[in-house]
């Protein structure tokens, strides 16, 4: 996978970083954005819940839901490159949609509605839906030539693709339509319209859910209904954006069975939907310092050294054992990577070794960006960057 070429290509307009929870989506997005800006592109990165220190490094002190330019000292000398960053504020994005699509009085009613407030801040899927919304807005603004999108910390990578549809089906769904039928048809006329059987049903439901909640939902959906043509169409429109040429998905995983299984599902899903995949980033791998000494030989040497009991033998034995462990770990990671590759031979892979500490400041991001976008061989170790261990 040649990520350097992908980020530098003027034809690449959107990159979406997906993957299971905690694998490095936010860090990868920010690193790639920095690399692309330094390659001369006008980039905006949409981050979601970045770690506090990373947000500070990007100059994002508070959620303001609009991109801010990141000051890059290296880019003052006439390079056209620019980096802008923002953190998604899910509730603000939702509020903005409401305000943009309704009259001021109606917007106020909706924004104050308790059901709306719950939905906009904590409903599962709202964050995914709003990330897509924001992507649509950034794309429409046409201010940047590359948009890099981080995705929410879902359990499954597929949630980014599925949650918006699920949410719009919920809002547009039969259940909600039934529950809100009286409100939509308007008072007593509505009751006649839906019939006595439904009223019994509705009374039971309102016992379970609470009458106030039901009235809140009714009022909210009735207001939304007249506001714009339904959530489903909106979700479909943003989804379509992801299928346009110029959009590229990047799947991030760590060399662990669960994360790679997620990555596999996601890759299959993208190909089923005809969405372009840039490749897999295998993040936080543990390559050993050298592969000249095998795990078994290092273990044996550790024992032999320890038996001599000479000066420094304990330390030497400990160092050999660390190496033996690293070799074994890297071997396991390589087998997991190989299993993924044999299931998906067409998918390019780039491994990114775990750095000693967290990836938090611009220097860390630059270093990670260099590994992501650099040549296939690591010049210092000559290890191919597609592998955890060099081939025998
Ligand atoms: N290559 C790496 N080496 C060391 N630490 C890393 C590396 N990549 C990411 N990290 C660290 O791992 C942590 C999780 O990374 P990140 O927040 O990017 O993951 P995420 O996939 O966005 O998580 P979430 O699903 O919660 O949004 C962070 O503290 C980050 O600094
Ligand atoms: Mg994240």
UniProtKB/TrEMBL annotation:
Pfam families with a match to the protein in the record: ArsA_ATPase
GO molecular function, one term: ATP binding
Coiled coil: none
Disordered: annotated span: 371-392
Annotated InterPro entries: ArsA/GET3_ATPase-like (IPR025723), ATPase_ArsA/GET3 (IPR016300), P-loop_NTPase (IPR027417)
Residue span(s) of domain ArsA/GET3 Anion-transporting ATPase-like: 12-287
PANTHER family noted in UniProt: ANION TRANSPORTER ATPASE-RELATED, ARSENICAL PUMP-DRIVING ATPASE ARSENITE-TRANSLOCATING ATPASE
Protein name: ArsA family ATPase
Species assigned in the record: Goekera deserti
